[in-house]
Design a protein that fits this description.
The complex is a heterodimer of chains A (about 425) and B (about 250). Chain A is α+β, with helices and mostly antiparallel strands and about 425 residues long. Chain A contains twelve helices and twelve strands. Chain A is globular and about 80 Å long. Chain B is of the alpha/beta class. The chains are: A alpha+beta (about 425), B alpha/beta (about 250).
Chain lengths: ~425, ~250
């Protein structure tokens, strides 16, 4: 990511610069947001394990697990084959309240928390990572942007639609600007009380079904990235052209389309947040979205693993279950450990974010690590399944194809690593 | 009539779990095992909620007997659309020995206390398969019963129940108040949507003890031993019918 970004976060980074010993004792007093401690009636402080959920979170997880198994699983293979999301799946996602998890009930949302979204995304990804990413983008990017930055009128107009029947798309990347996001070329020219947008976007997820697009365009190229502004563009706006969806290796049922803006007229009131602050919003939201993607990769790995182990316990060769061969056991245990580590990174990053504490480095770590774990897990699972793992009759090969995008989108692995390094560097400034 | 329906729900070991017997053959392993609402109880809750949505009844009260964990089951029912819950606290040895007779006494007491129009239960629980609680409850209350219901319709102050019986379907019309037990094809239970799970947090669950209802829950039964079913043995192929008869006689089957 561009150097200026680190300056925004350096203030929060200065808290994380103590040697380990002092860190333990000093952490709570140094942090502007003290850690919440749960205490029993006797006043004894307890620190529950990361896999501790509130009753609400547990119920949500169970409900989504059941729903995904019964109402998404039957469609997965067909959707992947046809590279199309089934309408029935889209409708039921809204019906179940999965598209407006953090949206206030005032706007027909579920009114739950960020961690609940993470659990939902993980459960969905166990069954179909494409459905999970649709849900992730909606909840962690679109809904959050509207909720945090929308004016009363914008919230009124869009939030209730987003929680009931409208999908949103986040448009940042272009053909010539991926990791170098801020060199985007889409231009928004001001005229009186409206803007004319010209340019094109690439790799836009959900575009096939989206009803609203959050478009990052530059109102003042001479100001560099400080001219980037977020515009709300409705699907039926004249001049907005949604291109043919990409024919992808994986995540096939999630639509990924190029967009073209040909003199698209957008009223001034459709600016989300402030002019020239678009870059800040993009970074901020992508930091959260990162945890969502980590949850997706985590669910993908776990789902793949859960589909493979029963086979290894059943399949016999040389008179014993293949699970019982030490070579297999060691590989399986290694992969299980990686998944668990990825889980803890993800849950911790989510809890940090919820607690209002600095979480960006941890979020980068979670996304980077879980994407790698997903790659390892799916690759190993195909091997463990042997020949059948290589066929489309079993779901394993789909997980293998789906996981690759994890190291690429919402910040490539290299970008994550560079971002982490910048934080680490700052930590040692005294 | 109050227009109130009482629905009993039981927390049982999840249907997908592989059951294991404890090494001392005293009971099945329940620690750390996944539990959920009995599937027939889910169908019962769904029917009650449907009736409320059709405005045939006014309130759905869901009841569960058991330890603290029974609250989870009640919450799930609340998330499906029930209005409030009653948790009848039964713990430890009492809970292990809790059977249809005790539960039906509790349901009968609550039905009177809540002035219920209907008591809807699942036809049986998937752990003990007793298929007795509904029938006993009706007997204790001296109310008519419509068991194994695959279809329900209110007709004035009577209920028409289509029952699944061995020979096919039987239709009966019974007076209210009545006890109904739900069979598999009565309906398809809904999923608790996330917004409903959130709403369920605000719904009330009252806590009572069997003694408060004047119910004695001592059991008249004692479980002596629990065994797993015998392991499935390999089959045997025979060449002729005579052979088959000889083998069957040998095995003492004929």
């Amino acid at each position: 990511m561009a150097v200026p970004l680190v300056r925004i976060f350096s203030k929060s980074c200065r808290q994380i610069c103590r040697p380990w010993g002092a860190c333990q004792a000093g952490w709570r007093s140094r942090s502007t947001h003290p850690a919440t401690e749960t205490s029993t009636d006797q006043g004894v402080v307890s620190f529950p394990p990361l896999q501790t959920f509130s009753e609400e979170e547990s119920m949500m997880r169970e409900a989504v697990k059941k729903y995904a198994q019964e109402r998404i699983a039957p469609f997965v293979s067909k959707m992947d084959e046809n590279s199309a999301m089934d309408q029935e799946v889209l409708t039921s996602l809204f019906e179940q309240g999965l598209m407006g998890i953090e949206i206030d009930p005032e706007y027909n949302g579920t009114g739950s928390t960020f961690f609940s979204s993470i659990l939902v995304i993980e459960e969905l990804a166990k069954v179909d990572p494409s459905v999970a990413v649709l849900c992730d983008i909606q909840n962690t990017l679109i809904n959050t942007l509207f909720s945090n930055l929308g004016t009363a009128a914008q919230k009124e107009h869009y939030l209730s639609r987003l929680s009931t029947d409208m999908i949103g798309s986040f448009c940042l990347s272009e053909a010539e600007s991926g990791s170098d996001a801020f060199s985007l070329k889409t231009r928004a020219e001001k005229h009186k009380d409206y803007y004319i947008i010209n340019g094109s976007k690439m790799w836009i997820s959900n575009a096939e079904h989206a009803g609203v697009f959050l478009v990052m365009a530059n109102v003042d190229p001479y100001a560099g990235y400080k001219g980037i502004t977020c515009f709300i563009v409705d699907r039926d706006t004249e001049g907005l052209e949604i291109g043919k969806k990409e024919n992808k290796l994986g995540l096939r049922s999630s639509s990924t389309c190029p967009l073209n803006f040909d003199n698209v007229k957008v009223p001034e009131k459709n600016i989300l947040g402030q002019i020239g602050h678009g870059y800040k919003y993009a970074i901020g939201m992508l930091n959260e979205g990162r945890i969502g993607i980590a949850a997706q990769m985590l669910g993908l790995a776990q789902g793949c693993f859960d589909n493979t182990i029963p086979y290894t316990r059943q399949r016999k060769q040389f008179g014993q279950r293949i699970f019982d061969f030490q070579g297999m056991q060691h590989q399986i245990a290694h992969v299980a450990t990686q998944i668990e580590a990825g889980r803890l990174l993800t849950y911790n990053a989510a809890r940090l974010k919820e607690a209002g504490r600095p979480f960006i480095k941890e979020a980068c770590m979670a996304k980077y690590f879980t994407a790698e774990v997903a790659s390892l897990t799916t690759s190993k699972c195909i091997e463990w399944m042997g020949g059948v793992g290589f066929t489309k009759d079993y779901p394993i090969e789909k997980y293998y194809r789906d996981c690759k995008i994890g190291t690429i989108y919402e910040g490539t692995t290299n970008i994550q690593l560079s971002t982490m390094a910048k934080f680490i560097d700052k930590e040692y400034d005294h | 009539m109050s227009g109130r329906v009482l629905v009993g729900v039981k927390r049982v070991i999840d249907y997908a779990v592989k059951i294991r017997v404890k090494p001392d053959n005293s009971c099945v392993v329940t620690d750390g095992v996944k539990h959920s609402m009995n599937p027939f109880c889910e169908i019962a809750v769904e029917e009650a909620v449907k009736m409320k949505e059709k405005k045939l009844i006014k309130e759905v009260v869901v009841v569960s007997c058991g330890p603290q964990q029974a609250m989870e089951t009640i919450r799930t029912a609340l998330a499906m659309g029930a209005d409030r819950g009653i948790h009848v606290e039964v713990t430890g040895k009492d809970y292990e020995n809790l059977g249809p007779l005790q539960v039906s006494k509790i349901m009968a007491a609550l039905a009177k206390k809540e002035d219920a129009l209907l008591v809807i239960l699942g036809k049986q629980a998937i752990d003990d398969d007793c298929n007795q609680t509904g029938q006993m409850t009706a007997a204790l209350l001296d109310w008519p019963q419509g068991t194994f219901a695959s279809e329900l319709s209110m007709e004035g102050d009577k209920i028409k129940v289509v029952r699944e019986i061995d020979g096919g379907l039987e239709t009966v019309k019974i007076n209210t108040p009545a006890v109904i037990t739900a069979d598999l094809r009565l309906n398809t239970p809904r999923y608790a949507t996330l917004p409903n799970i959130m709403k369920a947090k605000k719904k009330k669950i009252a806590n009572v003890k069997p003694a408060d209802l004047g119910v004695d829950i001592t059991s008249r039964l004692e479980v002596l031993r629990v065994d797993e079913p015998p392991q499935r043995e390999a089959g045997v192929k025979v060449e002729t019918v005579d052979d088959l008869l000889a083998r069957l006689k040998e095995a003492g089957r004929i």
